[in-house]
Each structure stands twice: as C-alpha cells, then as structure tokens.
Specification:
Layout (H helix, E strand, L loop, with lengths): L2 E5 L4 H12 L5 E4 L9 H4 L7 E4 L2 E4 L1 H11 L9 H26 L3 H24 L13 H15 L11 H11 L2 H4 L6 H12 L2 H6 L3
Parallel strand pairs: 1-2
Antiparallel strand pairs: 1-3, 3-4
Helix pairs in contact: 1-3, 1-6, 4-5, 4-6, 6-7
The structure holds glutathione.
Glutathione binds next to helix 1 and helix 3.
Length: 221
C-alpha cells in the first residue's frame, strides 16, 4: 500500500496525521502545496479544498479525523477504544479539538480586536469544557490511559501552537489539568518531531503575513 500525504507545511490538521503515521511507524511520502496557490490537480483530489488529503494507492481520503481512523484501523495498535460508547466519546473530543483549533486560528487572524476577543472567548469556553472533563478523568498519562490515542494526536498540534505564541491567548492558571496534559503531550518525541522544519521561524512569519489584530499587537515589528 502506497501512502502519499498532501500537506501544507504549517497545517495543524495535517500534523495530526503525521503524528499518527509516525507513531504507528507507517512509511509515507509527503507532497507539500501552497494553499494560496494550489496546483491545478489539487481541486480534483480535495473536494473541500483543504489539506490533509491522503492518497492510498489511487484512492483519495480527506478530513483529518477520517484519515486518522483509516490509519488506525489499518496499522498497528488501536488508538481508539474498543468499547463503542468510549469510542464515540473520543470522537466527540476530537471534533471539539477541531473547534478549538479554529477558535485559536480566529483569535490570531481576526483583523480587529473585537473579532479576536470573541474567538478567544470561544476558545476559553471550549477549553473550560475540556478542563472539566479531564478533572473527572485525568489523563494517565494520555487522554485515554497509558497509550497515545487519536484524541492526543488531535489536540497536540493545538497545544504546540498555543505554547509557541509570543503572548498567551489562554489563561493556563484556569486550566491546570489541560495544561499538565498539554505539557506532557508536546514533550512526546513523535509529537515534537512532527513539527515541520523551521516551525519556530515559519509560525511567526505566518502570523505576520496574516496581519491580524493579534500580530499587530503582540509581534515585535
Ligand atoms: N476539518 C478539516 C480541516 C482542515 C483544514 O481546515 N485545513 C486547512 C489548512 S490548516 C485548509 O486546508 N484550508 C484551506 C481552505 O479552507 O480553503 C480536517 O480536519 O481535515
């Protein structure tokens, strides 16, 4: 089986699949595209116009959660629970992780302060729900126990970006359990190594290019 991951270098959703592929030790090729100038063939393989896309031989998969479930069912140790009820809950938290990523992106890209603040509040609400869930069922050390799960691979890229921001958009003191889990996750070698080369320079460059209120306010000129 030949796997080709269509990627945009800084995309956190792509990174979810990179972590899953590497954790499972599955070989794959990567094709990078520019989202603001995609190659002509991209529209033909990505119905939603988004990355990640995974080509499995000649078959195309899209949506990070779907790609990760395919990888999970096809290779190595399972990263979702066997129990249908627990598995459904995990899927819900993965979806919530996507909402949190979009709220983060909205916070750092909104053109004006009001829009940025609204998205930041949305992020705080989402992470507050997560805090209450984790306080009931503390990660030990990962979301679902001893083994890295697809919930961990879904949230890790969000935490890496939140920690990389020059000024925090999250009140970590209000989120002690989320914070402990996040700090543990970003230290996992397969998570750390999934960041694209040059991330520390590229991420602020992307912020600056978006030229939102957050970048104008918090990035040194
Ligand atoms: N729900 C999608 C979200 C993927 C996504 O938003 N990817 C961004 C890049 S990080 C993208 O391709 N954006 C292009 C666009 O929205 O036109 C997933 O989980 O795969």
């Amino acid at each position: 089986m030949q796997l080709e991951l269509i990627s945009f270098k800084l995309c956190p959703f792509v990174q979810r699949s990179v972590i899953t592929l590497r954790h499972k030790g599955v070989p794959f090729d990567t094709t990078f595209i520019q989202l603001d100038d995609p190659p002509p063939w991209f529209a033909g393989v990505s119905p939603l116009g988004k990355v990640p896309v995974l080509k499995v031989d000649e078959t195309v998969l899209f949506e990070s959660a779907v790609i990760n479930e395919f990888l999970d069912e096809s290779f190595g140790e399972r990263m979702l629970a066997d129990d249908p009820l627990e598995r459904a809950q995990q899927r819900g938290w993965i979806e919530m992780g996507s909402a949190a990523l979009f709220a983060m992106f909205g916070t750092i890209s909104a053109p004006e302060e009001a829009g940025s603040t609204a998205k930041r509040n949305e992020l705080a609400t989402l992470l507050g729900h997560l805090e209450r869930q984790l306080a009931k069922a503390p990660p030990a050390p990962f979301f679902s126990g001893e083994a890295l799960s697809l919930v961990d691979t879904s949230f890790a890229p969000l935490f890496q970006r939140l920690f990389a921001l020059p000024t925090s958009i999250v009140d970590w003191d209000a989120l002690p359990t989320v914070r402990a889990w996040a700090e543990r996750l970003v230290d996992v070698p397969v998570v750390r190594d999934s960041l694209p080369d040059g991330f520390d320079e590229l991420f602020p460059m992307m912020l600056r290019k978006m030229n939102g209120w957050y970048a104008r306010e918090h990035l040194a000129a």
